[in-house]
Amino acid sequence: MVWSYPEISKEEFIKLLKGFVDLLILASGFQSSGVPAHWDAENCKKALQWGLFFENVLRSINSSDTFGESMRELDEAISEMKSNPLLPKGLENLSSDNLSKGREFVLEHLMNNSTLKDKQLQAILVAAVESGDGIREIIDGKLCKRQSVVSCVSALETGLKILSKHIEPKESLHREDNDATFLGLGQQPIELLRWNIWQSKAISYFLSKRTLRLVSGASLIFSAPKAQWVEVLRRLRVSDKNDDDIFIEKIELLLLGCVTSRWTHLIEGIMSVSYKSVTVSEEYEELCKLLLQRSKSLKQNEIALNSKVEEILEYLTEILESRFHQLWKLPSALTAAAIPSWSPLFGLYFGEIEKQLKLDHSTTRFCSCDKDLNEHNDCELAERVWCLYVFHICICH
């Protein structure tokens, strides 16, 4: 067999491949000395660039039958490397096929190591976003897969508590007026799968290319004095969209303007939330308690909020007027994360949710549940309650 690929020699390719294997060993969590390996965003980005390099080379070799001999030589060299008894476990699946998906292969090792901490997850997310197109979809799937595993462990840890709830009588947490608003809430714990779906949906929104562009735009717009950014929003027009679509995009920009200063903290928060065996009713009850506790002192204790956020919220409340139902057209996670509990807008938004919970069939429904059903378990309404619970109860505490 003869190596015929002209862009790089066989010897140089094998040398680089051995270096890539060393990188994957580090990505798995430990240095050769046994000391844990720590990854920051810059090193994660470099690792992904190496993965992309092998993707491009393999794609080029596979693009022509002329290089068939080169591919066979490559497979033979990889087999020889794998036969080495010193090759660490976890690299048995090294192959030309995996090298052709280099970035995914790197992410698999970065995210599956046993020492992975929230800080490294954040580094991986930052590196993925800065690496550009194509990588977000890959990392999305990896995050969901890992989150499922982590959540399963958390679910097992709470197993005895779940059993005790069924065995021991427990006084209802319902409010006295539950016949008016509480009858429509799910009484069974939210399923692990449903929790993961909602969490993945939130992460996907915050990391989407479109959202990141809007965050960048919002940061620029709201760095100006209020009079200027109000004028910018007033003049905002998109030729191929109707007035309602433009209005919703303005609301989205305003909400994103409330979180630009704590964007990293927001991502870390939603990523770190583990599964809890809790019913929608219990989530709702916690939010009701939070609403009752709202006060000026609570507002003063909020972290990373400033007069700019207050200005945005005041303007947002003003333009929504009696159209607070428009918030239902925006992602549940954004609305929950952006509106602080001390804001009057929080009470108005929560009030819209309460209207949906009342068993009044004349009310326009904003979830997909059948009007004849008595419970909200996996609909948009339950998701919105979950998002408020996660961002205002789980993450804040």
Automatic annotation (TrEMBL):
GO biological process terms held by the UniProt record: interstrand cross-link repair
Short name of any one Pfam family annotated for the protein: FANCF
Protein name, as recorded: Fanconi anemia group F protein
Stretch forming the signal peptide: none
PANTHER family xrefs: FANCONI ANEMIA GROUP F PROTEIN, FANCONI ANEMIA GROUP F PROTEIN FANCF
Superkingdom of the organism of origin: Eukaryota
GO cellular component terms listed in the entry, alphabetical order: Fanconi anaemia nuclear complex
Residues in coiled coil: none
